[in-house]
Amino acid sequence: MKNYNDCRDGCFGYHMTRRAFLGRALAGAAGFCLADSLAIRSWAATPAAKTAGQAKSVIQIWMWGGPAHLDTFDPKPEAGNDYCGPYKKPIETNVKGIRICEQLPELARQADKFAIIRSMTHGNNAHEIATYMVQTGRPAGERLVYPCVGAVVSFFKGYQAGYRGQIPPYVVLTEPQGRASEGGFLGAKYKPFVTGGDPAKTPFEVEGIVAPGITDAQQRQRREWLDQLNTLRRAAADTPAMKALARSEDEAYDMILGGGAKLFDLSTEKDELRERYGKNTFGQSCLVARRLIEQGVPYITINYPGWDTHKNHFQTMRTKLPELDKGMATLLQDLADRGLLESTVVWWSGEFGRTPKIQWEAPYNGGRGHWGTAFSALLAGGGFKGGRVVGSSDARGETVKERPTSPSDLIASIYKRLGIDSDARLPQPDGMTVPVMTATTTGGLLKEIL
Amino acid sequence: MRTALILLLAVTAVFAQEEIPHLGYVYPAGGQQGTTFQVLIGGQHLTGASVARISGAGVQAKVLDHLRPLNQGAFKIVQKQMQDLLAEKKENPSAWTDADEKRLTELRAKMTTFYIRQSSAPALVETVTLEMTVARDVAPGRRELRLQTAQGLTNPLVFEVGQLREHTENSGRSIAVTESQSGVRRRRPPEGAAKPMPGTMPVTNAPNAQTTISLPATLNGQILPGDVDRYRFQARHGQQLVAEVSARGLIPYLSDAVPGWFQAAVTLFDADGKQVAYEDNFRFHPDPLLHCEIPKDGEYTLEVRDALYRGREDFVYRVAIGELPYVTGVFPLGSRSGTKTTIELTGWNLPVTNLTGIAQTQGVHPIFACSGKFLIDRVPFAVDTLPECLETEPDDDLTGAQRVMPPLIVNGRINCPGDVDVFCFAGRTGQQIIAEVKARRLGSPLDSALKLTDATGQKITFNDDHEDKGAGLTTHHADSRLSTTLPADGLYYLYLVDEQQQGGAAHGYRLHLTTPQPDFELRVVPSAINACAGTTVPVTVHVLRRGGFAGEVALALKDAPKGFELAGARIPAGHDTVRMTLSVPTKAPSTPFRFSVIGQASIQQREVIREAVPADDLMQAFIYRHLVPAGELLACVLGPPQPFALGVLGAEFVKIPVGGQARLPVNIPSSTSWGEVELELSDPPPGISIESVTGAIVFRSDARTARPGLKGNLIVNVYAMRDPDTMKGRGQRKKPRRLLTALPAIPFEVVR
To answer: In the predicted model, what is the mean pLDDT of residues A102-131?
Structure first.
């Protein structure tokens, strides 16, 4: 039974199950590329990437629940014990003058590859609203529900823009985040494919692709049986719709029985590399993300839960930070080694930071609450300049001191690296269009690192 | 002016309080008059619990035991001791004695407590068992229960003295103990957990268990994860059954849960399993109140659960069930002091529906419902000094508006959904008018809204909800209040509606139509102040400003023993809160004592004194904070002091130039027997920092954030520090610093 006080996660109910994925795969998932011939040809708007961007893909590391900025990339050892707790000795990185939490030594060695934005702000302390704001760059409560970044990238870089990969253009590893990673007004077509399963286990049972306990031969046998039962298919075999469906189905089975399944088979990776990533769900998710990048998947989100540390925060950090450190640092190095980092944006952020002042008393016993007034984000690769710090928070990390940066500023900067113009339009169901981003009152595009 | 404040610090024996003792639940949270029974208390940092303090007279408690399940480190030590003992036995069986066997049994018993730890959240993992005796003649009602531990007094929790026969189901802890002793809990921890972590394997109750009861009764239960408690009883056709649940009423905020309380739901089933009634609240109260007329003679089952099927040991409830008298509302909601008033009562099983009497003392007083010997609920009744009148229908529009003359209080009612009550009064140019509805705060479900217009219907001002931080546990601030200066001579119209478009006999209100009456209330936090003898601790006082009062409030102690002193005891004009300090003498009472904090202010050339209501600042659902009132303000002095001189020498008031620094001479030694001394500002104001230099503290202000005019108190904590690098082995895990004391609060202002 789910722990009752896991308040944050319970609200995000929807994800694509194996059954739903297969349904989509057979009736359209692989057929995204066949949108013109199936019923999903809904909008006239043609995705257009107007500006030149060198990034092709994004890996979003979503720190689900909100990581403590003071205990990661904005340490404040001078603020005193009530603020920094046991983390009083931040470490130097390989970039002079940039210090991060002592629990992140591997990332410290990769600091030349990433930029830290220490002045993120939106002022909201509620999970759902803050998540929406950070994932869409829009304020909550507007008439329209906007698509999240992954859906927008999928729109501009996905099937309609010429993507021909077997794997859907927007993939979430491994847990879904429901409303926060939806297609918004773009519709269900732009929702992500959620893998489910656990890449730290063998096999990585990807929903709809790798079925537990079923061999490829059994899978083929089942398809044959299904074909025998499908009298409608035979009766209307020559109709365009049925032909298109057949093509979709062929591609879906290709994905299940061919390259798709192999892509998620991590046993082909060297053990040494798997160890470097960390033999845990997050570390192996990073490895899968790299493999998806190699296949050209435009947007991958790694939903990394467990950062909503209202209670026993530092006990949790002792486990989580080394896990984050290994996984993310190895991902950056691995991408760089393979020449992929220049074309891949790695975006690290949660919906907010955590209260700088520690709640030592029971029942929190050293906990940190929600803090949207000032928090940190990381950007690496894709042409973003590494080894930089953008903006700053005050001496206790409570407010933004220099260069306030809104989620909108950050997302617009990512779009710029991807070549998605801020003026590009997104189609609404009513036929109207809206710009991808609107102007902000904060610091604007992250020109410092663009 | 220069002063010399000399403190004595306890350095080696008792440190200032860092681990605040915390009560999570009391189970059962009450007991019947004239009975003796056991009570289980769950919490944290309860070591040394020796005395249970229950407010009021007639309830005695004896501490029977304190169980603190072994943690990982302690488990290994006990395990090693047991292994050594068994090795000795194996090596030399003939030398094995009864004493060795007893020792082995004791160690085994200790080890089993390790597995209990998995059953509870860390904040509930310790338990204290009390033997409680409630005198036969003691008044029924709510009390506050606290424990006195080695770290001082805990927070208060509700303990009810009841009149009905009580039924109490087994506690979750008793199940955990049984399972641990039987080995059931020694199964593998959940996947991914390296060791049995607190709360990862909560205990559960047996499904489908039912308890047979006879009415009337009080039912005590603990809802564990997925738990549903069922009570079977016989009832007769036509009985007016009432089941009143107390859950949120017992523990107002489970600060580490969402929603922030145990949201109880009750369902009544007949013998065929058909649902007869269901409730999960009562009006705006989260605790349900179920009433139904029993349709036929037979057996019925009452089911109690959490609305979301959550559960934990602190999901404690009490249900009073039977054909009980219950007042759901009164009208009017108050009266003028010294005036004979007839009150109309609504509810169930009431012996009378009208009461006539004269209320004297201004304030809010409870009205009780009694039937025979049973006294059940109480509803609030306001007594004020202003003239009063009743609302008269029809007054639904401009033409029917009821003419009134401020200042006065109108007792009215939104009679039906959509009803509008309109009042007309004559005003003058520049006249300040305040219209305030008191309804929710007096138990009415009305969600009021007020609109003021001129004679032409032009809106002047509107208000829906007005937050009153003094409203205690009524945290949905549905009462409205507007304050305005009238623009011209003429008639004005005040519209009062229910914003939810509801109405009925229960939707009463008191509309205060007055001119500003500047006043204030105070809340002092926390309600239990624990301090070592000879040390200083911070105390927070909130001022709730009324009627435009913006002046300064001077604070002082009342009924405190000699030697107790406040510092920084002044709430500056325009400020709503102050953190001051209380210094405790080296010679202080060894038992907790009651005292008060009073505030004095000059209002319209009058000296006004108000006593601070003790309160605790509780968090709800990880975000919202509420000042929950407590019955008494207590101080508990800990441990014998050891002489250690510490001096603060300097100005009473520090002026820090903007962007500059100010120096305060002090006499603080650089080290203690425990370690180096370090100073740190507690909750420093923005832009203010300190630096400790020989013989002084230097206060600095950052010109970018600390603006001229910034003022308040500076509280400096004094710590003894150990270099963690020199702490070996187990010592490394211990805290490298200890809070010795705070310095008396230092008032400051940033100046140009």
So the answer is: 96
